[in-house]
Design brief:
The complex is a heterodimer of chains A (about 240) and B (about 600). Chain A is α+β, with helices and mostly antiparallel strands and about 240 residues long. In chain A, about 25% of the residues lie in helices and about 15% in strands. The longest helix of chain A has 17 residues. The two termini of chain A are about 15 Å apart. Chain B is of the alpha/beta class and about 600 residues long. In chain B, about 40% of the residues lie in helices and about 15% in strands. Chain B has 25 helices and 15 strands. Chain B has a six-stranded mixed sheet with strand order 6-12-11-15-13-14. Chain B has a five-stranded mixed sheet with strand order 2-3-1-4-5, with helices on one face. In chain B, β13 and β14 form a beta hairpin. In chain B, α6 packs parallel to α7 and α8 crosses α9. Chain B is globular and about 85 Å long. The mean pLDDT of chain B is about 95. The chains are: A alpha+beta (about 240), B alpha/beta (about 600). At the A-B interface, α2, β8 and β9 of A face α4, α18, α19 and α20 of B. The complex binds flavin mononucleotide (FMN), iron/sulfur cluster (SF4) (2 copies) and FE2/S2 (inorganic) cluster. The site of FE2/S2 (inorganic) cluster (FES) has 12 residues of chain A, from loops.
Chain lengths: ~240, ~600
């Protein structure tokens, strides 16, 4: 089935099997997202991509496009909810942006800029989270994990391994590593793995590459995440 | 030694990774936790990553990575237990057993903790000991339990009176009053024909009894029409909505009819395997249900060639392990597959892609029981009762402030007032209909009706009299959701905890102007953006009470424009402990009054 859907008044075509976000991206429309990445199995967990489809809230990254849908993407109400959801992610973990190596290249930050988020709004949880610096080349700072599951999928789907999983329940979610000790150094991750590079935040970093690009000259220091995402993702999309 | 034990457990589970939950339940029962060595051995034997095992252990409340007591005692935290003095009984328990709530005693003999509603609200205060239901707890019983624990008497030798679970059926109706001979519904289905039975089901107007009210005939037809080599039937007996316990009674006294309904469904959709997903809290029913299944096999009502036809169908019982979210049908299916109960993305729906991605019908216990009776007696027998949009009857679990808590069956359309009269409730302040995820109604609304088009309920009906505190009720329910959120999606994972903290701040007298407005907007955020029904209803306790009692909320607020959510004095606690100080100067007041 192919056909057209209407996003914020604009008619765009879609192909059989496409989700709303895939159709939108192909048509040059940005829908904010964090857990979605073209070429990866959709996850649908961050809820940043929430759009109104025929009056009902749906996750654009998982919901299939179907002929005649009326989709609202860019309304004040949706943008406000997205801002609040992003703020939730900030207060849930411990994001000290000025001292984070990812600052400026971080998609969580990028989305926050895009949504004009000016404060954290909610009280902080000050969660106790660990840093796993055991691996010689790769660092995990759990303080910055937003449970987007991309590293889990990257390891499984791209690297053919199973290095990561998300365990726990509710607010006690945590990223765990598949090794006898639970430490990254005892897992079979390699620095070249997709899983080591896919993290949208600074939770998984490659060691000894820090600050090669000075802060101030990084991606989201100069570009809206909407432009960056569309440029990258229309290249990758199938 | 552990290896020998695991080999036995694994062999019983046929070395199937989908049976991980039942395997882990046995390991937990044997070792009081899931030891690291078991994780490694199971990962290898089942050929799954150890992270899957750890994720499952961390997800389910009844599985643990660290040892629990040899007597592991959990006390139900349902609002009705609180109304029966649960909090004092819990402290009494704690001192009788010499163990703090949430702890394991240092000798490892006993542990004590809270647990979400155990489905015994008509006979609380309730609890579980090593998974077995305890009811009507009081001080003499607690003394008795403490003595048995101290004597280290094996649970199997404990006096039976501690474990009595009653049906408490007070009002029968369409379903509860009629009996059905074993095989009658299956025979009627065969003699009438599959398509004709489908038509009867359609005519009956039966809608799902688990809460959402989807038309059962339509669900079965969608599933039957899916082209696939395999279809599955799943009976949802997770019954986790606080205040709901009717499925427990149906399975205790009407299980044959439930299994019969599943068998009729199998005949219609072409399934050869079915599952009963039984909440872990109902462990006490497990052996009895297994025996009933065995009897049905011997009677030719299950197994191959049922009643001489070409229908082959059997039912397996799978126990949950303490997770309300597993009542959500797609989370339930994940759980059946040996995974954490995280709701799937939809579409596809279970009727097209359910258990092992095969077309699957998931229905509530009561729905299958009704379907069996409809198959036997025809659709009109059912649709003659109820309202136009809500055909038939509804079985309620009534608890809280009334003389006769228990099971009541009514035709749909009955007024709330009638129900309250029948169960002996007076001085009513309000009723929680449909459990925490449902609606709170005040005593001005008692002429409303029980029906999908007015007040829908999966069965929960909790009555509060005028001595009860609305905010305490909302607080109990809000804590429940934060505890039970699966944590998959941001709005519910973070939002239910924010709701809990914000409500606690207000109820605790630390709220200031703007905090109620903030609470309400957070409610809408969680409701509108969450992934599944849990998050979408988690704010209902606050929203429905805030709508009816705005003044109660406002009265809690302080007369200042802002107060930090941060507890200044609480934050000094660690410093005080380190400095061994507790004098006045070591405390801070929150604001200069
Ligand atoms: C959080 C949550 C918990 C649920 N718990 C139950 C339950 O314990 N029992 C049940 O039958 N349905 C429960 N449901 C509804 C199921 O998802 C599903 O709709 C139902 O089992 C379908 O059966 P029915 O059509 O016979 O009602 C729950 C739904 C949600 C969102
Ligand atoms: S570590 Fe990064 S990629 Fe992995 S779940 Fe956390 S935020 Fe996502
Ligand atoms: S709404 Fe809550 S329970 Fe449902 S998927 Fe999201 S986090 Fe899990
Ligand atoms: S991008 Fe769609 S839910 Fe995360």
């Amino acid at each position: 089935m192919t056909g057209t859907i209407n996003i914020d008044g604009q008619n765009i075509p879609f192909e059989e099997g496409q989700t709303i976000i895939e159709a939108a991206t192909a048509a040059g429309i940005y829908i904010p997202h964090l857990c979605h990445k073209p070429g990866y199995t959709p996850h649908g967990s961050c809820k940043l991509c929430t759009v109104k489809v025929n009056g009902r809230n749906c996750s654009a990254c998982t919901f299939p496009a179907a002929d005649g849908q009326t989709v609202i993407n860019n309304s004040d109400e949706l943008q406000q909810d997205r801002r609040r959801i992003t703020q939730m992610l900030f207060v849930e973990g411990n994001h000290m942006c000025p001292s984070c190596e990812k600052s400026g290249n971080c998609q969580l930050q990028g989305v926050a800029y895009h949504l004009n988020m000016l404060d954290n709004h909610f009280p902080h949880f000050f969660a106790h989270r660990e840093v796993d610096a055991s691996h010689p080349d790769i660092l995990i700072d759990h303080n910055r994990c937003i449970f987007c599951n991309l590293c889990v999928r990257a390891s499984k789907e791209k690297d053919g391994k199973n290095v990561f999983a998300i365990a726990g329940r509710g607010i006690n979610k945590r990223l765990i590593v598949n090794s006898p000790s639970g430490q990254l150094k005892d897992s079979d991750i390699a620095p070249g793995d997709c899983a080591a590079h896919v993290c949208p935040t600074g939770a998984i970093l490659i060691k000894r590459t820090g600050y090669q690009v000075p802060i101030g000259q990084r991606i989201y220091d100069h570009h809206q995440i909407s432009e960056v995402a569309l440029a990258e993702e229309t290249g990758h999309g199938e | 030694m552990m290896k020998t034990f695991l080999d036995k457990v694994l062999a019983k589970a046929d070395y199937q990774a989908v049976r991980l939950l039942s395997i882990l339940r046995e390991v937990q029962a044997q070792y009081r936790h899931i030891p690291g060595e078991a994780i490694d051995l199971l990962a290898e034997a089942l050929n799954i990553p150890r992270t899957q095992i750890i994720s499952v252990v961390e997800f389910y409340s009844f599985l643990h990575l660290t040892p629990q007591g040899r007597y592991d005692i959990l006390i139900s935290d349902s609002i009705t237990d609180h109304m029966l003095d649960k909090e004092n009984l819990l402290s009494y328990f704690s001192s009788a057993l010499q163990v703090k709530v949430g702890d394991v005693r240092s000798d490892g003999l006993v542990s004590l903790n809270n647990t979400s509603c155990t489905g015994m609200c008509d006979q609380g205060p309730a609890g579980l000991i090593n998974g077995m239901a305890l009811t009507r707890l009081d001080r003499p019983k607690i003394d008795e339990i403490a003595a048995l624990v101290a004597a280290e008497k094996p649970l199997s030798e404990w006096p039976a009176h501690l474990f009595i679970v009653s049906d408490n059926i007070h009002k029968t109706g369409l379903l509860l009053a009629s009996s059905l001979d074993g095989g009658a519904a299956i025979r009627a289905t065969f003699s009438r024909g599959i398509a004709e039975t489908q038509a009867e089901l359609d005519r009956s107007g039966l809608r799902g009894r688990g809460g959402a009210g989807f038309k059962t005939a339509m669900k079965w037809r969608f599933c039957a029409e899916e082209k696939s080599d395999t279809h599955y039937v799943v009976c949802n007996a997770d019954e986790g909505e606080p205040g709901t316990f009717k499925d427990r009674v149906l399975l205790n006294s009407y299980a044959d009819q439930v299994f019969e309904g599943m068998t009729v469904c199998a005949a219609i959709i072409g399934a050869s395997r079915g599952f009963l997903y039984l909440r872990g809290e109902y462990l006490h029913l497990h052996d009895k249900l297994q025996a009933i299944l065995q009897k049905r096999r011997e009677a030719g009502l299950l197994g191959s060639g049922i009643l001489g036809s070409n229908l082959n169908f059997d039912i397996e019982i799978c126990l949950g392990a303490g997770a309300y979210i597993c009542g959500e049908e797609s989370a339930l299916i994940e759980s059946l597959e040996g995974k954490p109960g995280i709701p799937r993305n939809r579409p596809p729906y279970p009727v097209t892609s359910g258990y092992l991605n095969k077309p699957t019908v998931v229905n509530n216990v009561e729905t299958f029981m009704a379907a069996a009776n409809i198959a036997a007696r025809g659709g009109d027998w059912f649709s003659d009762f109820g309202t136009e949009k809500s055909a038939g009857s509804k079985i309620l679990s009534i608890c809280g402030d009334c003389e006769k808590p228990g099971i009541y069956e009514y035709p749909f359309g009955v007024s709330i007032r009638q129900i309250l009269t029948d169960c002996g409730a007076d001085d009513v302040m309000g009723v929680q209909i449909g459990g925490p995820s449902g609606t709170f109604i005040g005593n001005q609304e008692l002429d409303r009706q029980l029906a999908f088009e007015d007040l829908a309920t999966g069965g929960s009906f909790i009555i509060f009299n005028n001595s009860r505190n609305v905010l305490a009720i909302a607080q109990n329910f809000t804590h429940f959701f934060a505890h039970e959120s699966c944590g998959f999606c941001t709005p519910c994972r973070v939002g239910t905890s924010l709701l809990k903290n914000q409500l606690d701040k207000i109820v605790g007298g630390h709220g200031s102007a703007g905090d109620v407005v903030e609470l309400e907007s957070l409610c809408h955020l969680v409701k509108n953006n969450s992934h599944c029904g849990l998050g979408q209803t988690a704010a209902n306790p606050i929203l429905t009470t805030l709508q009816r009692y705005p003044d109660l909320y406002q009265k809690q607020l302080k007369d200042i424009s802002y107060e930090p959510g941060f507890d200044l004095d609480g934050a000094l606690e660690i410093a005080r402990r380190m400095a061994h100080r507790d004098d006045a100067a070591a405390h801070l007041s929150q604001v200069e009054d």
